[in-house]
Every structure is written in structure tokens, then in C-alpha cells.
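Researcher: Structure for this, please.
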Amino acid sequence: DGDRVFEAELLSVYLEDTASHLAALEEAVAAGNVESIEREAHHIKGASGNVGALGMHILTAELESLGKQKTKAGADRLTLKLRAEFEAVQSFIQAYIAESNH
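Model: Predicted structure, C-alpha cell format:
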């Protein structure tokens, strides 16, 4: 089905893009760069909302808020939660894509 193929392509792009932005977010948190925390969190938040990854959307909204407040207090904890949530979303999407290919 063409729609499932297109959906699988979009989800694959989401995973690649989010992995890249998550790595940049983790670097920003480690460096204490609140502007980058806000920017990377905003990007991930929007993309995650678009694909229905609500846990990631909520966590990145919190991280984005920290960036806007010019603080990184709690960012380490939130980023660890976000990484775990991304791994769960990634596993789900990869299984969904594999199922779509059969």
C-alpha cells in the first residue's frame, strides 16, 4: 500500500532527524548552552508532536521552557528521560516499519 510506504519513509526520516537533534541537545546540556537547549528541544518537540510521540513532546516542552528561562536546572534529568523515551519510540517505529514491509 502506497500510504504505508510513505508513512514508513516519514517515520524513518523522523528517527534519523531526531537522533541527530537529540545528540545536539545532549551536547548543549553538557555544555550548559541554554540557547541550544531551547533550539534543539523546540525542533524535537515539533517533530515528535507531528508523529504522535507524546512523551517526547512533553519532555522537550519542559526542556524548551528551561532554555527560555535561561537555566539548565533539571536539564540533565530531563535529557536522560528523553533519551530513554526516544529509544522506546525508536523500537516501536522500527517494529512498525518492519511490519509495514511485509
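Researcher: Any notable elements?
Model: The mean pLDDT is 95. The chain has one domain: 2-100.
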